[in-house]
């Protein structure tokens, strides 16, 4: 008999895992609480527009992933540039991510000189203090860029996006997301613009970006089609009641849920979870789970509101997306803006522009509860004040609330994550992958890679945390 695999969540990770396992002959069932597939990488239709849940592109350093999407799934991809991303900072546009040489070259001379000299002094100190007192995001950045640059840019941005001060954010975020240029590179690049030396892994100039002309959701559509073609199924609008996971790894796991108002039970040999760890914990009926309760509480998630503005004219901006960061400005509650038509003109109906503003918050906080009109008034006030657009140009407003958008990496989070995942894998035999399931700030290509690896893990020896960790080590962030 076929071994059954139940996958919790029909995002890119869950669908990829389901696709690979179904193709290998497993009996696959993917259950999803929403009425659509794709998770955060989905596309919806609204008044003849095709719109993503926030800005997405497909870029990867992993040849296997690109081949899988392009050839195995047959997803049409067009090349696009992501080097034109901009940051609106202190009333001017600079390249994003913010680089110290851009700040020196483009901001007013007083600010530039303070940035430069503070940076130079910091780099000299770093020769003697490298690696000391670097447990937090703030300590790492101040130790490499200086206090002035941190207070001017990094500190306020982190507080707005992540919802906590840099002192409480783990140092891993800085190490993986922020380039560390040498002093020589800074001087040469600032004076001449010449680029040299190694590039940071997050540098968009390192890789070509692609985009499906009909939206990022096409990838999920093809994954679902592959599951169905191989005899599996994907169920939407499901509500899980409980998950029985006995300590005996050879025993079946049981998922109780409702779909269309009908109660259902699924018994399975393997369980793959892409849902948030705190949600999985609450649903579990398993021996010893109280031992990780405190650890799970230390792994929170950030929420997101997407505010769409449907314009009366064609596109307004050339950059695919624009980031915003200003201190002490109550009108600036969003941190990124993107224009749908800049990703693909095929997404837009009748040449009318669509803008999307991202507002980060916590579920059920003051911002989350604001009415659409109030959110729009706050955002448009800032855009009008800085002469981006006028409210008379906006024809309609739509919002999408996403309760769980991405993990928050609190200082010292990794031991809590290791203990949680160790219990779930070694004790219960549950494989956790994806942005929410692995508690990882993963891009679309990373999620696909996780799903492909899941197919290998479950198609071999019994799941063990040590093997799981080695395979996914680069995504533990």
Task: Characterise the protein shown here.
The protein is an alpha/beta fold. It folds into 3 domains: 4-44 and 215-299 and 411-475, FAD/NAD(P)-binding domain; 98-201, protoporphyrinogen ix oxidase, domain 3 (Orthogonal Bundle); 301-407, Protoporphyrinogen oxidase, mitochondrial, domain 2 (Polyamine Oxidase, Chain A, domain 2). The chain is 36% helix and 22% strand. It has 16 helices and 20 strands. It has helices spanning 12-23, 63-72, 100-106, 109-129, 137-145, 147-162, 171-177, 183-192, 217-229, 277-283, 293-297, 372-385, 414-427, 434-437, 444-458, 465-472; strands at 4-8, 27-31, 43-46, 49-52, 78-80, 86-89, 92-95, 209-211, 233-235, 238-244, 253-259, 262-268, 270-273, 284-285, 301-311, 321-325, 336-339, 354-361, 394-407, 430-432. The chain is globular and about 70 Å long. It starts with a strand and ends in a 5-residue tail after the last helix. Mean pLDDT is 87; it is low at 188-192.
């Amino acid at each position: 008999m076929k071994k059954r695999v139940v996958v919790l969540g029909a995002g890119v990770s869950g669908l990829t895992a389901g696709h690979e396992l179904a193709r290998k002959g497993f009996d696959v069932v993917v259950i999803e609480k929403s009425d659509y597939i794709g998770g955060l990488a989905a596309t919806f239709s609204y008044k003849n527009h095709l719109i993503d849940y926030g800005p997405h592109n497909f870029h990867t350093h992993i040849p296997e992933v690109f081949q899988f999407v392009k050839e195995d799934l047959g997803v049409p991809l067009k090349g696009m540039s992501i080097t034109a991303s901009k940051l609106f900072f202190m009333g001017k546009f600079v390249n994003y991510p913010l680089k110290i040489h851009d700040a020196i070259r483009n901001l007013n001379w007083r600010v530039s000189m303070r940035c430069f000299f503070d940076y130079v002094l910091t780099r000299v100190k770093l020769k003697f203090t490298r690696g000391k007192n670097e447990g937090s995001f703030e300590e790492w950045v101040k130790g490499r860029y200086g206090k002035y640059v941190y207070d001017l840019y990094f500190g306020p941005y982190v507080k707005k996006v992540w919802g906590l001060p840099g002192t409480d954010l783990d140092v891993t975020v800085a190490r993986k997301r922020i380039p560390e240029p040498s002093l020589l590179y800074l001087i040469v690049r600032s004076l001449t613009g010449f680029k040299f030396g190694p590039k940071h892994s997050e540098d968009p100039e390192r890789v070509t970006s692609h985009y499906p002309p009909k939206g990022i959701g096409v990838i999920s559509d093809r994954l679902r089609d592959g599951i169905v073609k191989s005899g599996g199924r994907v169920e939407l609008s499901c509500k899980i009641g409980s998950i029985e996971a006995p300590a005996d790894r050879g025993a079946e796991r049981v998922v109780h849920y409702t779909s269309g108002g009908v109660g259902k039970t699924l018994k399975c040999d393997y369980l793959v979870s892409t849902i948030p760890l705190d949600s999985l914990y609450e649903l579990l009926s398993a021996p010893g789970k109280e031992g990780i309760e405190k650890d799970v509480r230390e792994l929170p998630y950030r929420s997101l509101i997407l505010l769409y503005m449907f314009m009366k004219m064609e596109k307004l901006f050339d950059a695919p997306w624009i980031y915003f960061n200003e201190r002490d400005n109550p009108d600036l509650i969003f941190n990124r803006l993107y224009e749908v038509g800049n990703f693909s003109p095929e997404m837009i109906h009748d040449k009318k522009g669509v803008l999307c503003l991202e507002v980060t918050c916590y579920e059920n906080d003051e911002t989350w509860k604001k009415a659409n009109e109030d959110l729009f008034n706050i955002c448009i006030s800032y855009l009008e004040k800085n002469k981006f657009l006028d409210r008379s140009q906006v024809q309609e407003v739509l919002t999408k609330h996403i309760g769980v958008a991405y993990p928050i990496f609190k200082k010292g989070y990794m031991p809590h994550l290791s203990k949680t995942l160790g219990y779930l894998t070694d004790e219960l035999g549950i494989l956790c992958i994806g942005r929410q399931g692995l508690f990882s700030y993963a891009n679309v290509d990373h999620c696909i890679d996780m799903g492909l690896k899941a197919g290998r893990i479950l198609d071999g020896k019994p799941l063990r945390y040590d093997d799981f960790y080695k395979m996914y080590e680069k995504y533990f962030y």
